[in-house]
Amino acid sequence: MKEEKEELKDKECNCTEECNCGDNCECTKDDKCSENCTCGDECTCGDDCKCKEDKKDKKKEKKKFFKKNDEKLKEYEAKIKELEERNLMLSADNVNYRKRKDEEVSRLLKFCNEDIIKDLLPVADNFERALKLAEDHTEPEFVKFTEGYQMVYCSIQNILEKFDVKAIDGANKPFDPVYHNAVIMEEKEGVEPGYVIEVLQKGYLYKDKVIRPAMVKVSQ
User: Fold this and answer.
1) CA distance 16 to 37
2) pTM of this structure
3) Beta 204-206 vs 165-167: how paired, if at all?
4) Residues contacting 143, CB < 8 A, separation 6+
5) What are the φ and ψ backbone dihedral angles of 185, each rounded to 5 degrees?
6) What is the mean pLDDT of residues 208-219?
7) Domain membership flag for residue 203
């Protein structure tokens, strides 16, 4: 009897989880339920056993769960990528906008006096015409009157020079549509075709911009 008790003691179940072996448990101390125990593998349900079906259903549910999570993960990754690309595009658009804005502001500041200068040019033209007509008159009273015109004209020219406005040199130069506006075509002996014969109205440059092309007569 003593030997049988010791033998039963050696065969005491050492399962860490609940054992379903029943009376025929053969787990020993040397076994580890998590790795070696096979106590619960044998089904004792009888003819109505649904253990295998339950296991299959659980496996299917797990597969569906992981598949669904994988799909969501891919969807989120695609969304993140799309948002990153959109953010890069918006950043690039913002940089381009700021660049265009800075260029526009710089241009406006550079030519901020353009409208005033354009309004001043016809006044200078009228003084030039008046002084040209006065060249043929030598009467003392008329000369004094002309001197006053000359002083005003010089003041206008000083203002134009102050704002970096220069007259376009057109006489005896090849015709250039950027700087010249041809209003008359005329044949002239000794002059090659396409040359400026006469400047009818001065053109002007404001810094590096043509604000008024010269009105010229061109040889043909």
Assistant:
1) 10
2) 0.55
3) antiparallel
4) 137
5) -115, 130
6) 93
7) yes
Least confident of 36-45, 120-129, 167-176, 205-214: 36-45
Residue 11 has pLDDT above 80, yes or no: no
Domain count, the chain: 1
Higher pLDDT, 62 or 94: 94
In angstroms, the CA 199 to CA 188 distance is: 15
Q: What is the pLDDT of residue 179?
A: 94
Judge whether 29 lies within some domain: no
Q: How far apart are CA 155 and CA 163, in angstroms?
A: 13
Query: pLDDT tens digits, residue range 111-124?
Result: 889 999 999 999 99
CATH number at residue 178: 2.30.22.10
The secondary structure of the chain, three-state, reads CHHHHHHHHHCCCCCCCCCCCHHHCCCCCCCCCCCCCCHHHCCCCCCCCCHHHHHHHHHHHHHHHHHHHHHHHHHHHHHHHHHHHHHHHHHHHHHHHHHHHHHHHHHHHHCCCHHHHHHHHHHHHHHHHHHHHHHHCCCHHHHHHHHHHHHHHHHHHHHHHHCCEEECCCCCCECCCCCEEEEEEECCCCCCCCEEEEEEECCEEECCEEEECEEEEEEC
What residues make up the domain containing 219?
A: 165-220
219 vs 174, 182, 202, CA distance in Å? 10, 10, 18
Residue 8 lies in a domain: no
Residue 121, Cβ neighbours under 10 Å: how many? 19
The answer to whether residue 209 sits within a structural domain is yes
Beta bridge partners of 218: 185, 196
